[in-house]
Design brief:
22 helices, five-stranded antiparallel β-sheet, alpha+beta, about 725 residues, single chain, eight-stranded mixed β-sheet
Length: about 725
């Protein structure tokens, strides 16, 4: 059975095939007709069509197809010659052609004189955002300011199909259902049932988001339902224990029956916290609406909110749509969890297919993009988690724990060691945390895009081939490595080859970046075998850049800009969450998107099925444990590279590392007291540098050495204290 991507690619190819006649912009089509004094009925009669069809062509909702397209183009060409644009002369170029929807992002904005304003939605009553009621209600004061504030999403929206933004928050007050949109817009919603709400969204609301890549597809509109909206539409404010476990309402629920009677369809997930309700596509146009049920924990507080003090349940709809609208504008329209959304962002920026013309027949057919993941490939036993079906007949005993020689164990650091007597003389332990470390590790990383090729009989290591290598790295001795002419104390540094920092013992599976780092340190490597990918690319580059820009822009909104250094940067970071609480939530969500998406590349079974049975995540093309391993290997070795540079420059060694949080003994409480600088006052080249960009570090927290010794005494030994030291309790969230 063809997949959804294959079907949409075929439709896109048809669209490309018929788009041979350049047409004016939709607004210009209407202007030309009215200038000639023609009605839509007259044109419809001449073209043997319907009046509604002509209206859709003039609004841009649909495009004419052959043979009517050529006739319509001829008509408009003749009218344009008789009725030129009022502000134009003989030298004025013709209006820009309309490019098929399947291959463009937002339509370009024509000159004001060349296009009439897009007509408003026919039945969507628009009213200004009401002032927020005082704190007597459940809504917080201050929302009035949020209502008036324009979001990036509204400012950037140029596509008339989505003029009201990517999403809306549906709320009900005094019996009136309202849709709060980005930019302070509030629409009156006439719908009284969920099916009517879906149809209103598809026909009148003008919600959605233009594709991020010309070969991708537009995002479905999102409706966020509040508790009052659930009550208005006959839905429970809270799911029962049984419904929570199933993740959906039962098929016998009245709203589910309403959807079925209305001829609407739902995905296999049913009506749950993220319900997808749709009608069959109309040509190439999807007709799908996603419902985000806020009271059903659709926006998990651990990712989208403050986990210890959730804000979203009581946030005014105008503030909530500002928050989610900014996320959609800077990242992508939410699709569920931040991890799911981050994975969708990858494919939105690197679509698997495009249309390609067959030179022999002249027809356009779907073709795969060279820079994308285009199929579900075979997996390698050493790269999959323990429950994967491929291991069912691997011969492992029950409850067998695979060794590094049997399993690729590329994970972040979880390492610690006792303090030396000299280090205990320092009064403080300072923790610095790497900004968006997984996203930064993905930047510029070459990963495999096709299936694995098995190399046997001691293949030569090739750093250009992503994959997994069985190799013995136990001979690597950090104390023999020279960094800028100096050696380091290898006993006080973790091994770069194991998550626990232990010295490797014998052959083990490693991702390409790890083996390449051993070569960089100056050691010979002799692989025993390997599973590599021969089609490669920097698949994650555009994904990283979009998340980087979103993060940097959001931090700048809180007063933390890229030009801040030293104490100014530390002070701006300390006060940022008080500057704008909404932006603070957005910061957490962006970081969680980056981290979660990398983890989802090797999503494990959630207990849906027994061990060794297929689970849903395995059906995704983007289930790629090898890419996840490459990112984590690059993150860990990149961190180790900076540890080595810092140790060589200042004889400074960490005492604990938790993922991307590094603990250093310090004579003072600030990172400025411990991070080394050159004589000119600049950070040591290749070391840790304070700053807001991904890959730079910030201050996570400070504690005393005495506090640490007390913790060790209470636990009965040394343990990893890196993530217990948080001056800012939200530091590191989402990373």
């Amino acid at each position: 059975m063809p997949t959804e991507n294959e079907l949409f690619s075929a439709v896109d190819a048809l669209l490309e095939e018929v788009a041979q006649d350049d047409l004016p912009t939709p607004g210009e089509r209407k202007r030309l007709r009215e200038a000639a004094g023609l009605s839509q009925e007259q044109i419809a009669k001449a073209l043997k069509s319907r009046r509604e069809t002509i209206g859709n062509w003039e609004s841009g909702e649909t495009e004419p197809r052959p043979p009517k397209r050529a006739a319509y183009a001829r008509l408009l060409e003749g009218l344009a010659a008789r009725f030129p644009t009022p502000a134009a002369d003989a030298s004025t170029p013709a209006p820009a052609p309309v490019i098929p929807e399947a291959f463009t992002g937002p339509a370009p904005v024509p000159a004001p004189a060349a296009e009439a304003p897009a007509p408003p939605a026919p039945a969507a009553a628009v009213r200004p955002a009401p002032a927020v009621k005082p704190a007597a209600s459940s809504r917080r004061p201050g929302a009035k300011k949020a209502v008036a504030k324009k979001t990036t999403a509204s400012a950037a929206a140029v596509d008339p199909r989505f003029e009201n933004g990517p999403l809306a928050v549906i709320d009900c007050e005094d019996g009136q259902v309202s849709a709060y949109c980005v930019g302070g817009l509030v629409l009156d919603v006439p719908a009284k049932t969920i099916p009517a709400l879906v149809d209103w969204t598809l026909t009148e609301a003008r919600l959605g988001q233009a594709r991020l890549h010309r070969n991708g597809r537009d995002a479905d509109p999102i409706l966020v339902l509040t508790a009052s909206a659930l009550e208005r539409f006959g839905l429970p404010v809270a799911l029962s224990e049984e419904e929570r476990h199933a993740g959906r309402l039962p098929s016998g629920h009245k709203v589910v029956k309403q959807i079925d009677r209305a001829g609407l369809q739902m995905s296999q997930r049913g009506f749950g916290p993220w319900a997808r309700v749709y009608r069959d596509p109309e040509g190439s146009r999807r007709r799908c609406v996603q419902l985000c049920i806020l009271p059903w924990n659709a926006l998990d507080a651990r990712e989208w909110d403050k986990k210890d003090n959730p804000q979203l349940p009581t946030m005014h709809p105008a503030e909530l749509v500002q928050y989610l609208g900014l996320y959609a504008a800077r990242v992508i329209t939410p699709r569920g969890s931040t991890a799911t959304t981050g994975l969708e962002l990858m494919t939105a920026l690197r679509p698997p297919t495009r249309a390609q013309k067959d030179e022999a027949t002249g027809e356009f057919k779907p073709a795969f993009n060279d820079d994308a993941i285009t199929a579900k490939y075979a997996v390698v036993p050493c790269e999959v988690p323990d429950e994967h079906p491929i291991l069912k007949n691997a011969g492992f005993a029950r409850h067998h724990i695979r060794t590094p020689a049997e399993m690729l164990m590329e994970e972040p650091y979880d390492w610690c060691r006792p303090l030396t007597d000299e280090e205990c003389a320092n009064p403080y332990l300072v923790v610095v945390d790497i900004n968006m470390s997984f996203a930064a590790a993905a930047n510029g990383l070459t990963v495999g895009l096709n299936g694995p090729t098995h190399l046997e009989n001691n293949p030569k290591f090739d750093p250009a081939l992503p994959g997994s290598w069985l190799v013995d790295l136990s001979h690597v001795d950090l104390s023999r490595v020279r960094v800028n002419g100096r050696t380091v104390d290898g006993s006080r540094l973790p091994s770069p080859f194991t998550p626990k920092g232990d010295h490797p013992e014998g052959p083990a599976w490693y991702a390409t970046p790890t083996v390449a780092y051993a070569v960089e340190l100056g050691f010979d490597v002799a692989p025993i075998e390997a599973h590599v990918r021969t089609q490669t690319g920097r698949y994650l580059d555009s994904w990283y850049k979009r998340l980087r820009d979103a993060y940097v822009e959001t931090m700048a909104d809180m007063g933390v800009t890229t030009d801040l250094q030293g104490q100014e940067f530390l002070e701006a970071m300390a006060r940022r969450k008080q500057v704008d609480p909404t932006m603070a939530l957005l910061e957490t969500a962006i970081k969680a998107t980056a981290k979660g998406a990398i983890g989802k590349l090797r999503q494990r079974s959630r207990g849906q099925v027994p061990y060794y049975e297929p689970y849903p995540a395995l059906d995704r093309w983007t289930w790629r444990p090898d890419i996840r391993a490459a990112v984590l290997a690059n993150q860990r070795t990149g961190l180790h590279r900076k540890l080595m540079k810092t140790a060589a420059a200042a004889d400074l060694y960490p005492v604990a590392i938790g993922t991307d949080a590094i603990v250093y003994p310090s004579p003072g409480p600030s990172p400025l007291d411990v991070l080394p600088h050159t004589e000119e006052g600049k950070p040591v080249p290749g070391g840790f540098r304070l700053g807001v960009l991904p890959g730079m570090v910030k201050h996570q927290g400070t504690q005393t050495v005495l506090w640490a010794e007390q913790q060790f005494e209470e636990r009965g030994g040394v343990f990893n204290i890196s993530n217990l030291i948080k001056t800012d309790q939200s530091a590191g969230e989402g990373e």
